[in-house]
Amino acid sequence: MSVGRATNAVVFTFGPGLAVAVGWLLSTYGVPALLLLSCSLSVASSATWLLSRLTEGRAQVRSRCAAPGCDFQVSTRGVDAAEARRWQETAADHPLHRYRNPRP
Ligand SMILES: [Zn+2]
Asked: Mean pLDDT throughout 38-45?
């Protein structure tokens, strides 16, 4: 099993597992079934989204423009070193610089 598949398995197991745990805890307090369901689903979706964003960010490579004030950047994922280097050169030599606060 590759690292990416193992990470996905952990992410998509932890979220529903946490939802079941929260649902079980809430059920001991006599929470109505529909409220229990909505709370469990929101916990599952939030935990899965958060973990997937955290694991995506770890595998992502960002290349930024070196021009002062330019916020242009390229994000890549799952590329080899040569392709990452090409994207880095592209980010450093793009035709139109973008400035967050353009000068008047
Ligand atoms: Zn630029």
From this structure: 95
